[in-house]
């Protein structure tokens, strides 16, 4: 009995220490220090007793979240990512913890979504990809509705929308983004408002409503900066670059592309570095600076090949072909 009591006291002390460690790890990740975040969580896992399942679950979920969110950028450690999330799912199931089970299922959905996206040549899917991603998010949404997890509901609604977007079911995608955004707005979930807003901008741009696209894209960037989440900030700048380029406003486009490149370089994310190079190359090509554009596209291609990302390689090859043909600028 005394032994059990001492173990409980030790676990309570660990619990008091783990919470600030998780906050530090998330802060590391938000500011681009992913390696430091993961190292901290790994060290914490080694310290926590094997029978302290709730503490282990908390640490595994946070590591899994970091791995899943940056997988779209790094295309690395897929086996480790899925192993972490499956272990977290098992622990949540054993603990009968519905909220943490929902978190684990949602992260598995995100991981499967990005794994499918990273093996695709196009953002459009007609071959049945993303079904696992949708299934996990729907399971997570059901649990989150049951336990009243507002933040989680916003998250799952958004991720379900992205699957419909890949399947070109745009009305369904917008419905889910809108529901996600409105719930997040009503309940003060600032972080959860950012991605739906960025996707509103993307859809407006695809429809040719560039003024609306610009409005939403600036709003998404402002929300991102308010939350301090740097890993995805280059994506906001690149979207703004695309819109300004379509408007023929080259200086504004270049400013956002350059900012995206600088942040990506600072974070060390090669995928977003390559995407920024493509955008900078597009601007150079539009200004008929063909040789400089070609150099940017070639550098982007080398990074795409290094990361083994088919979509990024295809985009790089497409641009290189365009500048070879009569020095033509890419269609932007």
From TrEMBL:
InterPro entries: TPR_rpt. TPR repeats lie at residues 154-187, 274-307. The keyword Cytoplasm does not apply. Keywords: TPR repeat. The keyword Transmembrane does not apply. It comes from the Bacteria. This is Tetratricopeptide repeat protein. Coiled coil: none annotated. PANTHER family: RAPSYN-RELATED (PTHR10098). It holds the Pfam family TPR_12.
